[in-house]
Amino acid sequence: MKRLLLLALLAGCGKAPVAPRGGRPDGPLAVTTTEARTVKWEQRLLCVGTLLPAQESRLSAEVEGRIEKTHVEVGDTVKAGQDLAQIDTASYQGLVNLHTANHNKAQINADNQSTNLERLEKLRATGAVSSTAYDEAASAQKAALAEVAATKAQLGGATTSLKRSTLRAPFDGRITERLVTDGDFARIGTVLYHILDDSTLRFRAEIPERHAARVKQGQTVRIRVDAYADREFTGQITWVNPAVNPDSRAVAIEARVENKDTLLKAHAFARGELITDAGADTLIVPGDAVVTFAGVNKVFLIADGKAVPHEVTLGERRGADQAILSGIQPGDKVIASALSKVQPGVAVSVK
Q: Mean pLDDT of all residues in the chain?
């Protein structure tokens, strides 16, 4: 019995311990590395904003009266100067006719008074007319001329009202809302239509204050909207606000976007990519090589056979590549595998 136990103990002592996968228990951790490299990348700023129409107006009645006729509906395309509605045009035409007649009558009277005054001036030279009669004729002529001026002003006002009784489109555009119908009574200031020009749209957005120096007039903006998620529209920055919004601490920008096919809708939400540099040198590493903990981003390099962490500032990530703004240099070898086991100072070997 003792002999069997001794043989069992000897057999157990002869077995070697099983090494864990990856090398000896006390050996370095096997890892792979990748080189931080510089590539040409577009430098972009992402932003969100709204597509505003080139022009937009609420068209109101400039005279008072009943709506005689509306000529357009929502969605209609109109040209500048096109008639949209008529407001009691017949009544205003009647006032023009009345004041025209009064003006003509006053003009005839003034002409007669002027002729009479000229006749009396000739007779006055011979002493055939008294000074009193001449003065009375001169006063009558002045009164007649004043009446001409008054009736002319009244006629001008009536003509303006007649012109304003027909509501016309102020610019080429499309009707987005009609607020009255035939027979409604409109007062001065009553809104009749909404009209906008969407042949060109204005992409209005805000850029964080820290990026304001990168944004300039003339830069390209690529626009996407949810309605056409697979399509890209381009525009050009037309202005950058010189002041920072004190509430959002951001800088407003506006870009002009052509809308010839009228696919884009005014007041739609849009996402923008502002191209600040078409081909800037950018340092990149694989995105999986970056370790983030407690808000700190790090990559691991190898020095003297050990893993050394380097805090990095991240730029944009595109696909599998992560842009690095600072923290490492081009050509640095970055650990790209077994990162869940890599700790500062741990011994590593490159596969």
A: 89
Residue whose C-alpha is closest to residue 33's, from 334, 302, 343: 334
The answer to whether the beta carbons of residues 65 and 182 sit under 8 Å apart is: no
Residue 108's nearest CA partner among 138, 142, 159, 145 is 145
pLDDT of residue 119: 85
Phi, psi of 198 (to 5 degrees): -110, 15
Residue 1, pLDDT score: 40
Q: Thinking of the domain 26-41+281-350, which architecture would CATH place it in? A: Beta Barrel (2.40)
- Is the model's pTM score more than 0.70? no
Closest CA to 164 of 194, 186, 180, 148: 186
When the candidates are 1.10.287, 3.40.50, 3.40.1390, 3.40.1350, the CATH number that belongs to 89-164 is 1.10.287
Locate all alpha helices (DSSP H) within the chain, ordered by sequence.
2-13, 89-126, 131-164
pLDDT computed for residue 143 by the predictor: 93
Q: In this predicted model, what pLDDT tens digit does every residue of 39-58 receive, in sequence order?
A: 888 888 899 999 999 999 99
Q: Which residues of the chain have pLDDT under 50?
A: 1-24
| CATH architecture assigned to 45-54+198-278 | Beta Barrel (2.40)
What is the C-alpha separation between 341 and 329, in angstroms, rounded? 24
